[in-house]
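User: Predict TVP38/TMEM64 family membrane protein's structure from this.
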Amino acid sequence: MTDNDGSATTSRWRHGARLALCAAFLLGMFYLVAVARVIDVESVRGMIAATGPAAPLVYAVVSALLGAILVPGPILAAGSGLLFGPLVGTFVTLGATVGTAIISSFLGRRAGRESARGLLGAERADRLDAQIERRGLWAVVGQRFVPGAPDALASYLFGAFGVPLWQMGVGAFIGSAPRAFVYTALGASIGDLSAPLAYAAIAVWCITATLGAFAAHRGYRSWRRHGRRGAAEVESVRVWPPRTR
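Assistant:
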């Protein structure tokens, strides 16, 4: 093994350890805020309600920050519906969701972008960048439709793999609109889950979940197909011109 091979292996281990550390930190945060509930969302909601007319804006900003540290989005959205009703609450939830996507993506890019490229290697990283340039926006939109996919964790991952912030913001706005309505409307209907608004929210959730699962399957197959095509093109360039005997 040459010195270059040894340094490349060492570099890969370093990048892998860095990404593993980032993943462990995020999983630890997720456990603390989503399982152990170290943050009392009810208390936060009460303090924000006391700010008066500025409460919607304050709630959007605080929710964006809480979402970035992996407080579950449905809980924050339901609180928005409970405080501001289904109409205003949906816009507050959507603003907070876009804010969380941008913050998480930015942090993911700063923490893991270099290591992600190091692990992939220059050739694969360049192919991935080309895929993101063409389809990054719709990858973000599609992820938001997938049922059960944690948006903040996905945003960290998108950031680490280089999805631009504008794609994160626009994609989160488009893809999160249905779920923003769903969870906010359910929060606004918390006292009467048999209300028409609650039924409408459940219907929207079912439709978007079905579309999301279908789109995720199609998107994955398309991504793999284009990835194989790109690899084949690179290989053809390598062997050109053909060797002569």
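Residues 73-120 form the longest helix (48 residues).
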